[in-house]
Design brief:
- There is one protein chain.
- With 126 residues, this protein is mainly α.
- The radius of gyration is 27 Å and the shape is rod-shaped.
- The protein starts with a helix and ends with a helix.
- A hairpin with a 2-residue loop joins strand 1 and strand 2 (66-67).
- It has a domain at 45-125: Cytochrome Bc1 Complex, Chain D, domain 2 (Orthogonal Bundle), CATH 1.10.760.
- It has 7 helices and 2 strands.
């Protein structure tokens, strides 16, 4: 009888341990999400967004889930400084060396755009 009692306690202990581990795993995997931050309003961001649309940037890039997801620009303002953003936006500098000629020519349209600074502000904020 002692062996059967020990087996029952062992089975109960194992079941409780498995249930406890499952509960801990579920709690860790389903941690509450951090509250979403309100979008930051950047002066000129509306003009920058319009320039992004008018220059056709969304044909090759996406920003905030809008556009071509093959080349996402989310967080580009944190990865590149303003000079690098300007070079990649206008197809000049290091970008001219790394981009195919056709794409560099297409980006050249942004060089003379009156809203280039607003576009750069918009990209820096994203």
């Amino acid at each position: 009888m002692l062996r059967q009692t020990r087996a029952k306690w062992l089975a109960l202990g194992t079941a409780l341990l498995v249930a406890l581990m499952a509960a801990v795993f579920a709690a860790l995997r389903n941690a509450p999400r951090a509250p979403e931050q309100a979008p930051v309003s950047v002066p000129g961001s509306d003009a920058g967004r319009r320039a992004f649309e008018r220059l056709g940037c969304a044909m090759c890039h996406s920003l905030g889930g809008v556009g071509n997801p093959a080349s996402r620009l989310d967080g580009v303002g944190k990865r590149l400084d303003r000079g690098e953003l300007r070079a990649w936006t206008t197809g000049t500098g290091v970008a001219a060396e790394r981009l195919p000629a056709g794409i560099a020519r297409r980006k050249a349209a942004a060089r003379d755009d009156p809203q280039l600074e607003a576009l750069l502000d918009y990209l820096e904020a994203k």
